[in-house]
Amino acid sequence: MGNQISANDRIIVALDRSPFSENLPLLDMLQGRARWVKIGLRSILVEGPGILEKPNERGYKIFLDLKLHDIPSTVASSLENLMPYGFDMVTLHVAGGRGMLKACREVVDSSEDSRKPLLLGVTVLTSLDHTDIRDFGVMYSVAGHVKRLAEVAQQSGCDGVVASGGEVKIIRGACGDDFKIVTPGIRPGGQDDPFSDQRRVMSPREAVELGSDLLVIGRPIHGADDPVKAFDNIVAEIESDQD
Ligand code: C5P
User: Fold this and answer.
1) Dist CA 43 CA 40 (whole Å)
2) Which residues are within 8 A (CB) of 7 and not within 5 positions of it... i.e. 6 or more apart?
3) What is the Cα 205 distance to its own chain's centre?
4) What's the gap in Å between 91 CA and the centre of ligand 1?
5) pTM to 2 decimal places
6) What is the pLDDT along the chain (243 residues), one digit of tens a residue?
């Protein structure tokens, strides 16, 4: 499915500035260019879901990266109460279990709202390594565990997963072409990470070639002197390799 998505529609611009109002100039600059924005836990916790109105009134699709994880009824009810604010994709920890994931699927499927968010599983956080997962009693490699959790996500009704560039291929192979893969840790032009806090980075072109559908990109856009130019350059970089 990957190549059918236009390059503009593949980029999710992370709105990581705080307070949220500091993201408004970027929303205005990229309106009509970028399709997706990402809003994270901090903004929702501190400022409330009412902030979704800002990207919504400008016509953006919203990726709500909340990484929900609790007992099924709590997560399902939270999702149900959030849906009226309007968003298009939300993250759930696969470690919450099949019951939690299925309860969320049920909430979305039974909603009368026509705007139904995609459910994305979070497998193993990229801040964790093999020592961390061994502490939890997991004897697989990180990649092996990611693959298992992606399969659980798919079997439990998730539409896709969030995955680092290094995990895309194994998940695509295990879960097929229709499973959405959203990838952060993207650095344009294959440059080294100037922010040096991402463990594994990949260029937009490489991630798309490996099979990622959507790319989460923050500082290379909102931290650029000219965010519009930075966005356009990333689009050009993706398109140049889709020929
Ligand atoms: O590094 P950059 O500014 O492009 O990050 C964009 C967004 O992706 C941030 O909101 C960050 O929290 C998120 N993210 C990430 N790496 C992960 C998971 C999420 O950078 N492994």
Assistant:
1) 6
2) 234, 235, 236, 238, 239, 242
3) 17
4) 13
5) 0.94
6) 445 789 999 999 999 999 999 999 999 999 999 999 999 999 999 999 999 999 999 999 999 999 999 999 999 999 999 999 999 999 999 999 999 999 999 999 999 999 999 999 999 998 999 999 999 999 999 999 999 999 999 999 999 999 999 999 999 999 999 999 999 999 997 566 566 565 668 999 999 999 999 999 999 999 999 999 999 999 999 998 555
Residue 242 is encoded by which pair of tokens?
């889709």
**Residue 44: in which H helix or E strand, if any?**
helix 41-47
Decide if 183 contacts 171 (C-beta within 8 A): no
Q: Is 67 marked active-site?
A: yes
Q: Which CATH architecture has domain 2-242?
A: Alpha-Beta Barrel (3.20)
Among residues 242, 199, 191, the alpha carbon closest in space to that of 220 is found at 191
CA gap 127, 152 in Å, rounded = 21
Q: Buried b vs exposed e over 138-149: b needs ≥16 C-beta within 10 Å?
A: beeebeebbbbb
Which residue among 38, 54, 61, 67 is the active-site one?
67
- Single-letter residue type at 195: F
Q: How far is the CA of 218 from the centre of ligand 1 (A)?
A: 7
Q: How far apart are CA 238 and CA 11, in angstroms?
A: 10
